[in-house]
Amino acid sequence: MERVLSRGNLLSALRRLERNKGAAGIDGMEIKSLRPYLLDHWPEIRHQLLNGTYQPKPVRRVEIPKPDGGVRLLGIPTVLDRLLQQALLQVLTPIFDPAFSPQSYGFRPGRKAQDAVRQAQSYIREGYRFVVDMDLEKFFDRVNHDILMAKVVKKVKDKRVLRLIRCYLQAGVMINGCCVATDEGTPQGGPLSPLLANIMLDDLDKELSSRGHRFVRYADDCNIYVKTKRAGERVLESVTRYVEGRLKLKVNREKSAVDRPWKRKFLGFSFTPHRDPKLRLAEKTVKRFKQRIRELTRRSRSYSMELRIQQLNEYLNGWSGYFRIADTRSVFQSLDEWLRRRLRMCLLKQWKKPQTKRKRLTSLGIPADLARNISGSRKGYWRLANTPQLNRALGLAYWQSQGLTSLVARFDELRYTT
Question: 94: which strand partners?
Fold first, then answer.
């Protein structure tokens, strides 16, 4: 606990928290208010932590819609509890992480989702062309506290730290003003939750390795690669028995399957069926991208084009940075073209009156007669946005001059410089 509460560790945790920002917990305190609060209350908080009497506040329940239906339940701790969890994480990670499996990639220093996808690709290239795609049902909500703490206590002997971890597990959830006790689960949303998840699933990694399986795990996403469908069905059945019997977790049999890798998705990616498989974007990834772009380019949003492009760039830069390892450049190009058509539609909507449209179109170099035809057309904005004249006048060069990020240009820049 003294290491957790050391000045250097706490300052590092505080800087990390301020960099990540994030929403307030049930007390409404924002990140910017944390430093002044600590100046007034830190001696008392530190005393409680060292004495083992500190009691975390319940988390705030947030429901995030899933793309395929349903919701993901997040638990947002207060900013003070996030700070303490981050400080705990920084001390516990060097203790637990070195012993984790090399096939575990989620939320570990020096590892990222793209590494997991590349590893999966290498298994397929070696001839393991069936995947056991195992889905753990509501994993973060079903973690058995006693089993988890039994794993933690093997490497952590300070009873104050153990008590604090269990307090975070049992802090409860505030729902409609009522605190609901949590007898199982480790709420998603706190810095400590991913490490606890990896500790919980480390036995599964060791079991799969002892059986000689080729597998990749990223948090609760676990894919096992085999050579035949029959072998995959045997593996799915035996691993399900292990997960439900030893770890007391639940395997979602409806979502779990044995199939070809190119018919499944993994961390937003999929593969081509070639002998040397290429990485491609999963269908749901493209649908999710278009859904987000539609939200940002809705004609009913009365934003200036400058603000709209700024918001788009923030999303496009992050999205392209994650998916840059895909081999399907043509998909990025088609999404670029579709996005520019959405923006042309927004411009036509903003110009409203026919005479305004005609003036704007002629100023862009469109001949007067064609500008008159477009501005007076009864066709819908989406259809007009795809006319050859608008394509030329409001094409790639125009949007680049407006500062819009090009997915293809970003793809080429990131792919060939990293």
Answer: none
Provide the whole-model pTM. Answer: 0.87
Question: Kind of pairing, strands 173-175 and 59-65?
Answer: parallel
pLDDT in tens, the chain (418 residues): 999 999 999 999 999 999 988 888 888 899 999 999 999 999 999 999 999 999 999 888 777 776 666 667 778 899 999 999 999 999 999 999 999 999 999 999 999 999 999 999 999 999 999 999 999 888 887 888 899 999 999 999 999 999 999 999 888 766 555 555 566 667 778 899 999 999 999 999 999 999 999 999 998 899 999 999 999 999 999 999 999 999 999 999 888 999 999 999 999 999 999 999 999 999 999 999 999 999 999 877 777 889 999 999 999 999 999 999 999 899 999 999 999 999 999 888 888 888 888 888 888 888 888 888 888 888 888 898 898 888 888 888 899 999 999 999 988 887 766 5
Task: Answer yes or no: are the C-beta atoms of 344 and 390 closer than 8 Å.
Answer: yes
Among residues 152, 150, 151, 185, which one has the least CA distance to residue 168? Answer: 185
**Alpha-helical runs (H) found in 173-304:** 193-210, 229-246, 283-296
Q: With beta carbons less than 8 A apart as the criterion, state whether 256 and 236 touch.
A: yes
